[in-house]
Protein 1
Amino acid sequence: MHPAHQPSNNRFAGPIEGTGTNGFDVEAAASPFFLQIPGWVTPPASQVSSEPFLSCKSLYTELVAALVQTWDQPGSRRDIAEDCFRISMNYWDLLKKHYASLFFRSTGEEVLFFRYVKPGFLAFAQMFSLVYHVVLFRPQDPVAGHSFLEAESLRYPNFLAANKALIDYWLSDATVNDQDWFLRHTHHSHTGNRDAFDRDPLFHTAKDQPVRSYLALRAYHHYIAEQLAQGL
């Protein structure tokens, strides 16, 4: 198994030069599937100049670079997907430690974190857990394997159909529901919604989890489409 990448000693290193489609500058020469769709939609310009957001942006570009480097390695796709999952969780833990010391100076910063930042980081962990599921459980028989991928391709459209109102809101500039959906004071009535990626009650709100799932499933849908197109 490849050694899992650890965050650099410079926890908030400068952004990587390059042109990507994640809303930030990333190294996209290899164009793996998880860079071909926005991983973190850029918040309104008036909010992105705050120090906490800029710190998150730098850490995010470091995370993406680590994932690209790992995904491009030769070797077992099972091991590589597992390593990418571990990298994603390592960076999420690092981000939590940063915010535990910084905390939020306003409700606006808290909304920004839970509406955009947290889902953008944790989406990678959920996405690579799904990729690992495919690598591990897809049947070797070509016909059965194709049917398996076809079934997996339904995850994203089914999720969109079930969560259309929330996703439309999140993609818009609307803010009317932000304090109900993306502040932690609302999490107590939604504790049952926490999953394996999201067990820390100090970093949980009512709606950041489905936003994360939207980003993860959108990337995963692209991965499944690639697998179907290649007949793999």
Protein 2
Amino acid sequence: MSTECRTDNQKLFGVIIILFAVVLCRRNDVENIFENVDLLDLAGSFNNRRNKSTFLHRLPNSCSGFFSLRYKYMKNRDWFPSTRAEQNVMFANFNAKIDDYKNVFSLTEPLLATLHTICETFLEVYQKVEQNRAAGANLTSWQDKIFIGTPQGDPVPQAPKFAAINVPAGAFIGIFAEFREIVGFIKSNLSYTENIGLDLMIVAPETEQSNFNDASPNLKLSLKNDVSVEIAFKKSDFDAIEIQYRKASTENWLPADKATTSPTTHTPQLTVAGQAEKFEYRAIYLQKNQRVGTWSPIYSVTVG
């Protein structure tokens, strides 16, 4: 058998093993294949370890048809904290505890290092930016003291100090998306449990998992082209939201939109064209085209 023929057979055998490993979703098998079989010419994008790692992180989504039923039907809640302060708590907690689950999830050293890099990058950037934001607020007051402060002739006070930001070695951009992908990989592991998710703070808080009857959407309104209202929202676990509007100081609500993706845009009709007018908006969740939960707070915006 020629060398070329043997090489082709090896590649074919490698592809079969990879497909078999993907079906079983055994990450270690797939990684061993990447280490021992030269198949990179079959997928030109996998030209470095980081791309290999990214492929492995995405395995659960790419083979969802063969996945464990528990993962396939896992409730798709948005567990990622919505505020920077909450994200700070989550990343600090995750960074401190993830090593305890290394063997539970068979996490490799490179993947574990990536997780720590993500967490430490966020903590360094967020905390130093907050410090510098506070220093920046004090800077104006310091300037005013120098220009118009009293008593005249007093020494200049010490200027606010800004903290240097030193990201960890290997830091990269887009860490939120990367973190979500790796957490998805962790949650796909058969050893993953809800209690582990709670310990790592990678599940939605109980308040977001409560009875549908208590659910209420939050809206963010912004003016677009002076005549339209852009409405941003989180759909959570529901199919859509129904949005209503009315002119301020009136009682009757009118349909604005039934939206499944955020943001959506609505153009209310002005009483007098070109004259600014205030409008109010509210929304409620929809599940199978039926209203669920309670109406949101009323949000107002001036159009025109």
